[in-house]
Design goal:
Order of helices and strands: EHHHHEEEE
Strand content: 35-45%
Protein name: MaoC family dehydratase
Number of domains: 1
InterPro entries: HotDog_dom_sf, MaoC-like_dom, MCH/BMMD
Pfam family, one: MaoC_dehydratas
CATH architecture: Roll
Structural class: alpha+beta
CATH class: Alpha Beta
Number of strands: 5
Keywords: Plasmid
Family: Belongs to the enoyl-CoA hydratase/isomerase family.
CATH topology: Thiol Ester Dehydrase, Chain A
Length: about 140
């Protein structure tokens, strides 16, 4: 992984209503905004159910795994920032890209390093639907 390199993660992932309802109920999120079409139609400004933002975040990170961390990650250390500038709706396709923002040797694990990723998700129209900064502990050798 090289600093400041943009890694584009393909293919994208088209989000279905089933994805949203299943994730939302599995995680005990009872917000009508994700589950209740009739009530959501009354809620401004979107007037529709929206995809759970935690599903969007999980998908954003998941899209990066095969290219960046498969077989090397030891731990997610944290997210310092996550934003959702545009909503994701049923039928939208999420595409992801990642920039390696920082990397250094681990002080406590001599066989590992600390890597910070800047992840971005866009929908099929190119609108940013999620951005997240994530710090990980990764093995130096797979």
């Amino acid at each position: 992984m090289e600093l400041d390199t943009v890694y584009e993660h393909r293919p994208g992932r088209t989000v279905t209503e089933t994805d949203n309802v299943l994730f939302t109920t599995l995680t005990m999120n009872t917000q009508p905004l994700h589950l209740d079409q009739a009530e959501s139609e009354q809620l401004a400004p979107f007037h529709d159910r929206l995809v759970n933002s935690m599903f969007t975040l999980s998908t954003l990170v998941g899209l990066s795994v095969a290219q960046l961390t498969q077989g090397t990650i030891m731990a997610n250390l944290g997210f310092s920032e996550a934003t959702f500038p545009h909503p994701v709706r049923h039928g939208d396709t999420i595409y992801a890209e990642t920039v390696v923002a920082n990397k250094r040797e681990s002080r406590s694990h001599p066989n590992a390093g600390i890597v910070t990723f800047a992840h971005t998700a866009r929908n099929q129209r190119g609108e940013i639907v999620a951005e997240a900064t994530r710090t990980t502990l990764v093995r130096k050798q797979p």
